[in-house]
Amino acid sequence: MAELASLVQRLEVAVSRLEAVSGAGVASAGSGAGAVFVEAYNSLLSGPVEEYLSLSQQIGGDVQKQAEMMKRVFSCQKQFLITASSSQKPSDAVLSTLLAPLSSVIQQVQSFREQNRSSTFFNHLSAVSESVPALGWVAIAPKPGPYVKEMQDAAMFYTNRVLKDYKEKDKKHVDWVKSYLSIWTELQNYIKQHHTTGLCWSKTGPVASGSSAAPARSAGGAPPPPPGPPPPQVDLDQSPAAGDSGATSRNALFASINKGSDITKGLKHVSDDQKTHKNPALKTHGGPVCSGPKPFSIPQPAASSAPSRMGPRVLELEGKKWRVENQDGAQGLVISDTELKQVVYAFKCNNSTLQVKGKINSITIDNCKKLGLVFDDVVGIVEVINCKDIKLQVMGKVPTISINKTDGCHVYLSAASLDCEIVSAKSSEMNVLVPGAGGDFTELPVPEQFKTVWDGKKLVTTATEIAG
């Protein structure tokens, strides 16, 4: 008996050891799977991200300052991925808390661009500001990859400007563009390999808690975290609770329907003198006519009584840039004594008119409403971005006019500028007015609708004719 008891005890010890080894193996397998995508993210940081940070430091100035903020953004995301690799997915409320530090530093990057609109490197700052929301892919499901691609495309509008300005001047900026765009290309590849249908969470670790969120350095109050996943859909097939008035109403409705032809017995007979189509006088004298339900209409939000905030009015030459900002109801603004190397940047100018005399390099109109612009000669480009109801009149010559994200733009060309190229994207209600022999203008709409077909080798896109 003693030998049998000793044998049983030894077997119990052996089984305990096997269970311990088995449990450790499962745990290491789970952490290993998480470590794989964390390690892959480290490769992204040490590759294109590190190259972007290095080139930003070489360029210096505002580009370097913004890059330091971006370094914190990637650091926050890495911390979030580490949490996901070792924890199970938490509730929506806890997930929002975990995402708060990442949301905060992304907001700081975007605010930095807004605070430095007069910066020499404004296009660099804008490229980063427009695309940094791509790092919110961790909250996107089921396909975060296309979302990152969309943000990358938003950056290319400004990186193309950087390439145009520095292609022949400084190769450092060209390399900066390549390294920055490669971040988003590599991130898409990373997501495709490790998080195709959304961020992967551990299936064996503890449920993530809000204490895992790393505090973000913020100059002001932290912005609200990005919204979590949508709430679960209501199951209409669930049995109603006792005393549910909605369920009672539905049961009564179905009972009435099941009556068949008997359902019409309770209807009241309407005589001819009560029918409006046989007695039109009822329509005008208000009698016993009951109006039917009114057409559905979307409720309009109440207009805010608080005026929109605008900064101080600016009309000044800063270096080579004429700044025209926050002009509201200013008629007759004039910029004269211009030089060929100067540019004009108009921002948040509403219900105003601006005349630019002489020959200058370029003009940019950003976030303006009901602005009229008259200019003589531009050797580069005239750009209209994020505007509404803009009127441009060319007195001399301009090679290119770009219209982007704008609703309502009328372009009056001069006889000398009929060869002008007009490039538009994400815009509507665009018209070009061409001068005639008698001085009258002929108004021609710019196509907004396109047709694309596959010809067997490539896609062929043509503008469709505008009816009317």
Automatic annotation (TrEMBL):
Q: Where is this region: Disordered?
A: 206-248, 270-312
Superkingdom classification of source:
Eukaryota
State whether keyword Calcium applies: no
Membrane topology of the entry:
Peripheral membrane protein
Query: What spans are recorded as compositionally biased (Pro residues)?
Result: 222-233
Q: Which GO terms describe its molecular function?
A: actin binding; adenylate cyclase binding
Q: Could you identify this protein by its name?
A: Adenylyl cyclase-associated protein
Q: Which UniProt keywords apply?
A: Cell membrane, Membrane
What SUPFAM superfamilies does this protein's entry cite? C-terminal domain of adenylylcyclase associated protein, N-terminal domain of adenylylcyclase associated protein, CAP
Pfam families per the record? Answer: CAP_C (PF08603), CAP_N (PF21938), CAP_N-CM (PF01213)
Compartmental location: Cell membrane
